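dumping this here so i dont lose it again. seq + smiles for zinc ion
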Amino acid sequence: MLNPITNGNGHSANGNEQHVNGNGFANGNGYAKEMVATKTAEKLAIESAVRTILDNVGEDSERDGLVGTPDRIARMYDEVLGGYHVDPVKLVNGALFDVDYSEMVLVRDIEYFSMCEHHMLPFYGRAHVAYLPTDQVIGLSKIPRLVEMFARRLQVQERMTHQIAEMLDDILAPRGVAVAVEGQHMCSMMRGVKKEHPVMFTSAFLGEFKEERELRKEFLSLVR
Ligand SMILES: [Zn+2]
């Protein structure tokens, strides 16, 4: 069973009113208009907030080099935080296939870029996703897109790791899911005096991966 679009807290992804209302699709234009109106209001609010930041860190938001920055940042957020608006059902789009294969399926080295929710600075690295099929497999390209859907939100790495595992479990109902994520966090790299760049490693195991130590070991030996 697929979740509708939710953020980490399980609330509606977008506190605003972007749900389809009763007549949104029926009249053929209500929904589209509503989306555009909401987006515009959101974009203007972000632009205004960025100008406030600029003017309060000692800058002049009207100077040549900065005058277009609020607009650029608002458009950038639309992309790098676009994961709130992705519908996982549409993302998977029926790319589930009946296959008589029960061994581990592993997609390694999925590059991702996310934003830490504590500082709104990037963290990035690689994710490794494995599952043990029951009777279905998912199209190869869909797993990186699931990772991207969760990465393009304000995140903590631990939660993102679990969300990827839970979503794959929901979609495929496999015998087990394993997810490992490596991340370098700009908020720890840029701040403080230490010039070390530790890599954070998080993992989530469901089903047989959780129950069987040997399977976890096999997975971890394949990804580390
Ligand atoms: Zn941070």
